[in-house]
Amino acid sequence: MDVSSDSGRPTQTEKAYAALKKAILRGEIEEGVFLSESDIMRRYGIGRTPFREACNRLHHERLLEAVPRRGYLVPEVSYQAVGAIFETRLILEGAIAELACARATEQDFEDLDRLAAKPPRSSNPELDFAKLIQANTDFHIRLAKTTRNRELVELLTRNLEKTERLMYIELRCSRFRDVEFEVLHGRIVEALRSRDPRQAREALLSDITDAQRITLSFGQNPPGLAINGTARRLQPDQGKAPLASERRPGRKATPSPRRDSPAGS
What we know:
Layout: H1 12-25, H2 37-44, H3 48-60, E1 65-67, E2 71-73, H4 79-103, H5 106-116, H6 125-145, H7 150-171, H8 179-193, H9 197-216, E3 225-227, E4 230-232
Antiparallel strand pairs: 1-2, 3-4
């Protein structure tokens, strides 16, 4: 039974959930393979019940697929899934930008200015990636909070969690320039200060569509992208993701998305 030992301290299930979610989002657990209960329990020091409860929660968040008589599978990312995530984010943040123009205070602007700054570099590239991803999330969540609308904040938080794995792919792309983070976010804050809803909306949606364009370009890159030594490529929607045992070396590159697809903007 999963009971916290002290008030306010995370339970064993919460610890297992956080560890597994982090591993999946950062690519530490390879996509397209089933979780090994014994391996995961040994690697992360968690018990059988917390493991299963954490997997059930991640299944409801669609970070895992439950396959009868096989267990939990880490699904591969598809064009359709990426398109749906970004399409939803465009709708949410478009509304957030317009509300922020009317409701943001000077303190909100000061906080956003601070969060728009690029995190300092370190000698550890993986740590830099993680810090940049967290800084991006912090900026967009803080922006959502200027609306004083809790529902919008919660919806955006869930959407950003789904895009975190995509952002790890994006940030490892040599075409992603670090300066874009500060420049694009700076433009958003500047537009919000103008109190012009149209300008603010355009600045924010430009940030999102740029990320969408870079992410979708991976399917057109034949060599794929190496993350922790494993190639990553967006997958077409052709039924269930392939199992690890079904993978064959030399698989052809996946086709590029249709130009008329909502995900290709």
